[in-house]
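Regression check, adenosine-5'-triphosphate case 244:
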Amino acid sequence: MDERGEQRPVMPLEVSDLSYVAGGKILLNKLNFRLEGGVRTVILGPNGAGKSLLLRVCHGLLQPGSGNLSWAGRTPSQAGRDLAMVFQRTVLLRRTVSDNIAHTLGIMGVARQERSSRIDTALKEAGLSDLADHPARTLSGGEQQRLSIARARVLRPRVLLLDEPTSNLDPGATAAVEAMIRAADADGTRIIMTTHDILQARRLADEVLFLHKGRLLEHTVASKFFADPDTSEARRFLLGELLE
Ligand SMILES: Nc1ncnc2c1ncn2[C@@H]1O[C@H](COP(=O)(O)OP(=O)(O)OP(=O)(O)O)[C@@H](O)[C@H]1O
Ligand SMILES: [Mg+2]
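Current build output:
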């Protein structure tokens, strides 16, 4: 149930034979998987594996070259506001913290009288109430990332896609971002994220998609993936070896 007490039906994600080609290279290579939802999904893989590309295709920012992707039978653009994405590098407006949230509510047509309570709730959840009137671009890296998650969540998406949400953050800031991710999950928002941080993946993942060179090598329950992965590539990745 979400914060309004409504049931939120799970939107399964179905991907079949999905490929993405750019610059003459096959960057995503015939991916096939189905995510049922109700669990936190972490996409892992070495640099350049295609993790960020896959998230962007799932969100609809990039069109796949071939194959199909559907959210409960809908294309990403039909899914629209049910999907929200948080990028590795946050882009905040040159306005106050609360104006950044207000702007999103405004362009999405949320009624003016409803906006201020939505802003207050979002800032409270992000632990940013005391900074509401500060210029957003003066926030610390961790605060900026919390604001960008709050901004993504304020439209109550059913799915939150996060690309390396804690890269460059120290352990305290990372813990605060992870708490927001858990809170989103707890109120029924589906989490799909990438990370470089294997310890973070162990903390957050219920299931793992392991990509290598644009191919999906594993789609495995997290406990199994970390204890006994099926592929030698994943084993070596978990040992911290550089994969070719
Ligand atoms: N528009 C593009 N044109 C050509 N190549 C691209 C394009 N976008 C991404 N790539 C390449 O696709 C590959 C996958 O990129 P992607 O950003 O998805 O990797 P990643 O798994 O997220 O890596 P990292 O762990 O470094 O974030 C990389 O080799 C990248 O250089
Ligand atoms: Mg990436």
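Comparison notes: Residues 51-52, 164, 194 surround magnesium ion (ligand 2) (CB under 6 Å). The mean pLDDT is 93. No diff flagged against the previous build.
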